[in-house]
């Protein structure tokens, strides 16, 4: 009976996968209303999908092959919500992906979590000698929820790590900018030179801001947009200092050196705070592991002697 139930579950999973393959195949794929009327509304002929440019994230091909996944992504967006938060994090990450791309990745992570949870439940059932359908379903649901939330957590971690890298690169960029401006270069030329030499996350962000400025946007506006996207207070102060110096004609080199010194001091404070937190964390093994063992070694000979004397 146990093997029968396990075989039925495996057959159900195989049937579900086969159904997804059949419904996602081109003959059974539904055509939306927009695709039907688009050829009659366009003046130019519609290009072939084989030569159409795909999205940078690579989701376009998968999205066309699996329309059900796109519907699931839309459902996750409705249920989970937080689209504005995801959009802000993508802007802070300076990523070209959209909220729909992140939702699609959440679908993929959820599918992986569902499969992993079901496999773990099946293995645990086989090891215990009996199939518990409730445990398998509970682990599968836990993997599903963990996949959806895990992708959102990983996006937050990506933003945090990028901010840390930008703060690490910031003092060097500020010093090089001060050196270039002191040598007589214009602010825009100095920014272009330093961003090309330094590279990294901050250098790439400056290059994108300069690219926006070359397309017609004012340099001050493009730099402020970069600072607002990063949400880093030192970088915002740095950009404000550059903008004020450019608009009012104040010495820019002194402002850049002062900003670099402030960031270095803030980095020292962060190191001291991290050291304080680590010091408190180090007390946990000392109090709960080392101290009980020390007390046990100190009291055990006396307790052993008392037990022997009592006999």
UniProtKB/TrEMBL annotation:
Domain Type II secretion system protein GspF per the UniProt entry, residue ranges: 174-299
Keyword match Transmembrane helix: yes
Keywords on record: Cell membrane, Membrane, Transmembrane, Transmembrane helix
Pfam families given in the database record: T2SSF
Annotated transmembrane regions: 6-26, 107-127, 133-155, 280-307
Membrane topology recorded in Swiss-Prot or TrEMBL: Multi-pass membrane protein
InterPro entries: T2SS_GspF_dom
Cellular localisation: Cell membrane
Claim: Transmembrane helix is one of the keywords in the record: yes
Major localization listed first in the record, in broad terms: membrane
GO cellular component, as recorded: plasma membrane
PANTHER family assigned: INTEGRAL MEMBRANE PROTEIN-RELATED, PILUS ASSEMBLE PROTEIN
The protein's name: Pilus assembly protein TadB
Organism of origin: Epidermidibacterium keratini
């Amino acid at each position: 009976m146990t093997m029968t139930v396990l075989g039925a579950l495996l057959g159900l999973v195989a049937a579900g996968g086969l159904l997804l393959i059949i419904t996602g195949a081109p003959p059974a794929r539904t055509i939306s209303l927009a695709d039907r009327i688009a050829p009659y509304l366009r003046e130019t002929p519609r290009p072939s999908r084989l030569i159409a440019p795909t999205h940078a994230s690579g989701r376009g091909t998968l999205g066309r092959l699996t329309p059900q996944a796109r519907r699931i992504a839309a459902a996750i967006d409705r249920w989970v919500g937080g689209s504005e938060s995801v959009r802000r994090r993508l802007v802070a990450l300076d990523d070209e992906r959209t909220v729909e791309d992140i939702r699609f990745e959440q679908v993929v992570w959820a599918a992986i979590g569902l499969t992993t949870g079901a496999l773990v439940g099946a293995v645990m059932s086989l090891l215990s000698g009996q199939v518990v359908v409730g445990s398998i379903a509970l682990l599968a649901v836990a993997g599903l929820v963990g996949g959806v939330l895990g992708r959102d957590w990983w996006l937050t971690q990506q933003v945090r790590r990028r901010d840390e890298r930008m703060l690490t690169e910031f003092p060097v960029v500020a010093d090089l900018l001060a050196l270039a401006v002191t040598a007589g270069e214009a602010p825009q030329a100095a920014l272009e030179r330093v961003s090309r030499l330094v590279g990294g996350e901050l250098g790439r962000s400056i290059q994108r801001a300069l690219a926006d400025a070359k397309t017609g946007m004012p340099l001050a506006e493009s730099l402020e947009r970069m600072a607002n996207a990063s949400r880093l207070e030192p970088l915002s102060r740095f950009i404000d200092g550059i903008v004020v110096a450019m608009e009012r004609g104040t010495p820019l080199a002194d402002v850049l050196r002062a900003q670099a010194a402030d960031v270095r001091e803030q980095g020292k404070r962060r190191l001291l705070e991290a050291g304080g937190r680590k010091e408190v964390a180090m007390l946990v093994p000392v109090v709960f592991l080392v101290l009980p063992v020390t007390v046990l070694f100190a009291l055990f000979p006396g307790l052993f002697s008392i037990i022997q004397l009592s006999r």
